[in-house]
Inverse folding.
């Protein structure tokens, strides 16, 4: 079965950002700017955190607005896959994602798309995020 | 944006007088001294003229991170260095939050801030772009409000830190702190006062870069990263600091009889008080959230929430405040609080004005005793009747320390060393080397640590830890001095890398070498680390001695010889001799 990434329990999140570092490491970068997952405070740390991940939508808006079909719906489990060779960097996908889970790579001028690989979840010691059946 | 491992040597120099900046590659410093404290002390010596007033424009502020910052778990701290307005010599304070990550991924190894502005300013550093911005409208604001304003007004590219002062900083209370991410602090030795003297209210630092791991190193880097992560996650420290946080040992320290209580009237609070102020009790009743510094899975930061009646007619307010081992000691035990919620209220007040909680608590504890003994009167205190456990009076006193309505509060704002030199009561003015004491009354080692440590902090050489190991054993003064020196020398390495001291057992010499090697920093050996640890420590001591620190003139309050420690009564002649022995070991 296809998997997708999900925020399992945002109350467990301590804001360590290890998930973001893990996601960036996949492309050989140490930092936060290549991450397809974001953790930020919910308006003051005392209110806790917001975990922004791709929801693996069925009939995903980002794919619908992509003018070059660079973003295509995944075969099963919802969500999208990106064909970078087709992407012209228009950024419509970012605008279409109302949960803000489509991030942008300024260096390459392409979206950063979650691949549902679960690498980030491996580093979430507190079980705030995880892979689930899509 | 892309950054290479070797790009981490960049120093950003900011001149507040000229409102000008420049950057310089300082591989000379980073190659030789790693980063953090090692590089910061070299920059301090370069930038700080001898004998200056710490509150003058010539005092530099240096923030430094290290080669491991952001690259491995728990490498999450920033080192700040400056000449301390409290002790008149080395000012060094460490802080986590997001500060280290933001500085590193903004592209800097260190930031040096010199000069003083003519108008209130804050600095907005977004990667390579540095803006000087007018802070007139936020100058007299509390630290938490400054954070709120700047979060809104400054675009947040990537991840950022907001380092700011509260009202105490602007008034140059000599132990004013700097606050990051609302709940973390560059607490000790007066960074907030130095920022205040420069009319610098805050720094917003945003990260916009990431470091490329060379292709040939990726596998090795990930392997070493995973090894470190694994050790951290499975270590006792992880469970200990995550569950109860730093206050986990409060109760046992009191039971041991090593906890300074009511200005060290005794070293053990009554059982009822100890239970009330224990980490367990505060967690059960008030813990509302655990958070972590960026890139640390431990989450030792504990926040408490307190719901209280604000005004009649069901007006409740809920305040959130961080709580820690040292603040429970200084604002709870030292000031004789009998209820945890009173401690939390006082902690909130101290946090609101932005002062170091240890210095505040110890200074007020001295004032309370001096008041009881008639050395100071209501005239001095501006009408306040200082009394153990009275949270309202202490809160009012804290606000007066900031406002300084008279000479007495002006003196309190300079710390207990100064205040007791004016009003007397030096026998029970519990400062060492000019810095108010940490909680421990455990024996010879903790006081030798307090007196000779470069920062006069328990974290310099962990004397309290050694004392506990020595209980019931025979030991010589030489052994104690030598063990502390060795510990302090080694601690310069985690402080230069920079990794959190809670991870000091994870980052063994072997692990440090592996971690450096995996990011392409080759050529380090355990001997070389030991050598630079010693060099960095001596450089810090040299700075202290240059600025007037003198082992033969250290004032030791008599009180510590009158109250038994878990190692029995400490003798002044032993402590004096230990200082002498320590001095010889460092060639002084």
């Amino acid at each position: 079965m296809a998997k997708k990434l999900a925020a399992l329990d945002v109350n467990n999140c301590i804001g360590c950002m290890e998930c973001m570092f893990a996601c960036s490491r996949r492309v050989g970068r140490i930092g936060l700017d290549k991450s397809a997952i974001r953790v930020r405070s919910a308006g003051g740390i005392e209110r806790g955190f917001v975990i922004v991940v791709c929801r693996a939508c069925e009939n995903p808006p980002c794919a619908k607005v992509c003018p070059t079909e660079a973003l295509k719906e995944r075969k099963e489990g919802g969500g999208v896959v990106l064909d970078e060779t087709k992407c012209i960097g228009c950024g419509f996908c970012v605008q279409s994602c109302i949960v803000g889970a489509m991030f942008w790579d300024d260096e390459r001028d392409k979206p950063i798309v979650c691949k549902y690989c679960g690498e980030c979840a491996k580093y979430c010691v507190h079980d705030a995020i995880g892979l689930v059946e899509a | 944006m892309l950054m290479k491992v070797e790009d981490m040597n960049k120093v950003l120099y900011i001149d507040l007088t000229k409102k000008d900046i420049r950057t310089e590659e300082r591989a000379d410093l980073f190659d030789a001294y790693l980063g953090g404290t090692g590089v910061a002390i070299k920059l301090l010596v370069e930038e700080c003229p001898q004998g200056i007033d710490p509150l003058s424009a010539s005092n530099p502020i240096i923030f430094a991170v290290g080669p491991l910052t952001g690259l491995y778990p728990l490498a999450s701290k920033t080192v700040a260095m400056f000449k301390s307005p409290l002790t008149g010599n080395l000012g060094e304070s460490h802080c986590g939050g997001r500060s280290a990550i933001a500085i590193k991924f903004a592209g800097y190894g260190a930031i040096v801030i010199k000069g003083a502005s003519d108008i209130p300013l804050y600095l907005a550093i977004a990667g390579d772009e540095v803006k000087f911005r007018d802070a007139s409208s936020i100058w007299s604001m509390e630290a938490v409000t400054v954070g709120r304003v700047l979060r809104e007004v400054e675009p947040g590219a990537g991840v950022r830190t907001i380092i700011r002062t509260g009202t105490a900083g602007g008034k140059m209370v000599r132990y004013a702190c700097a606050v990051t991410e609302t709940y973390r602090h560059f607490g000790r030795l007066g960074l907030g006062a130095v920022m205040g003297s420069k009319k610098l209210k805050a720094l917003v630092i945003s990260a916009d870069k990431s470091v490329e791991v060379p292709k040939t190193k990726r596998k090795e880097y990930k392997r070493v990263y995973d090894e470190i992560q694994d050790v951290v996650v499975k270590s006792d420290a992880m469970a200990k600091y995550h569950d109860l946080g730093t206050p986990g040992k409060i109760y046992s320290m009191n039971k041991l009889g090593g906890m300074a209580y009511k200005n060290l009237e005794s070293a053990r609070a009554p059982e009822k008080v100890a239970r009330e102020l224990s980490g367990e009790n505060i967690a059960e009743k008030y813990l509302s959230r655990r958070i972590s510094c960026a890139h640390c899975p431990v989450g030792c930061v504990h926040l408490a929430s307190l719901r209280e009646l604000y005004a009649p007619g069901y007006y409740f307010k809920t305040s959130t405040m961080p709580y820690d081992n040292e603040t429970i000691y200084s604002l709870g035990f030292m000031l004789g609080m009998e209820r945890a919620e009173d401690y939390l209220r006082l902690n909130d007040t101290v946090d609101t004005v932005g002062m170091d909680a240890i210095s505040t608590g110890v200074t007020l504890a001295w004032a309370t005793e001096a008041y009881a003994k008639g050395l100071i009167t209501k005239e001095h205190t501006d009408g306040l009747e200082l009394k153990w456990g009275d949270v309202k009076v202490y809160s009012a006193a804290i606000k007066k320390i900031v406002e300084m309505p008279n000479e007495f509060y002006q003196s309190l704002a300079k710390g207990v060393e100064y205040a007791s030199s004016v009003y007397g009561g030096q026998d029970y003015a519990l400062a060492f080397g000019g810095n108010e004491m940490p909680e421990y009354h455990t024996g010879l080692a903790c006081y030798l640590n307090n007196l000779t440590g470069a920062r006069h902090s328990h974290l310099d050489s962990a004397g309290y830890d050694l004392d506990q190991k020595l209980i019931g054993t025979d030991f010589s003064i030489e052994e104690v001095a030598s063990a502390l020196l060795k510990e302090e020398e080694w601690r310069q390495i985690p402080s230069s890398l920079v990794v959190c001291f809670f991870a000091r057992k994870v980052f063994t010499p072997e692990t440090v070498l592996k971690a450096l090697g995996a990011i392409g920093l080759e050529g380090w050996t355990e001997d070389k680390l030991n050598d630079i640890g010693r060099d960095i420590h001596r450089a810090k001591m040299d700075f202290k001695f240059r600025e007037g620190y003198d082992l033969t003139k250290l004032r030791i309050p008599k009180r510590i010889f009158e109250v038994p420690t878990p190692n029995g009564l400490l003798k002044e002649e032993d402590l004096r001799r230990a200082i002498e022995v320590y001095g010889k070991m460092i060639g002084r």
Chain A is about 15% helix and 25% strand. Residues 59 and 73 of chain A are 7 Å apart (CA to CA).
